[in-house]
Amino acid sequence: MTNKMYFIANWKMFGDLRSLNSLDKVIKFSKSKEINKGRLIYCPPYTLISSFLKKFNNCQIDIGAQNCHESQNYGPYTGHVNSHMLKNIGANYVIIGHSENREKGENDQLINLKIRNALKAKLKVIFCVGETLVDKRKKKTNLILAKQIKFGLDKIKDKKNIFIAYEPVWSIGTGIVPKSKNLFETIEFIKSKFKGKSPKVLYGGSVNPNNIKNLKEINNIDGFLIGGASQNSNKFIDIVKKTYS
Length: 245
Ligand code: PEP
Fold this sequence. Notes:
10 helices; globular
């Protein structure tokens, strides 16, 4: 485990104004010594970004969005939000390339454009990569990851504002996590794709308070992208606490 760990909460399409109350205990926790060197980032749905920002006004918890449009400019794109608009309201991060959006047709080229424009807008990018179960069974994991990284980060020289989230698709929301040895090797493989300093590499997929004890022992992981468990503040806090205990 690296010392300064990132814990990124992906709320997906969950949450409403009533959910804000559940954040009080996370705010309290973020101000305590127990947070250790953990960095907390919440990615709520667009509708809650402003409310989360107000709520986290006096603490160190950062905010991100779950996606953005690829265009840098305003435009006739009904239902979309671009990275400048996110930065403008106070978000500092954006998740790009999540498998739930890849499944809906986002390809590597589109993801690359989104990442480049998000970086121009001074957002930090949580770039998701991961193989499907079919890929894994065909032993194509490294091939898929290499392709997603090559094309997703094409023409991007400065990678200091990029985090890579390794999220095997078969692990998201299933309760199944990769074997520790395999996960260590995959994270090493991802890091080996970078000539200079590698971006931080996070793991995502069914992280919960029960499996965090094993996951934290994998010493090349720089943090976690947490979906389901992050919507429950007690579980989210527990994951952070157990990482450092
Ligand atoms: C995710 O969708 O980014 C994720 C990690 O989900 P879960 O933790 O629910 O598997």
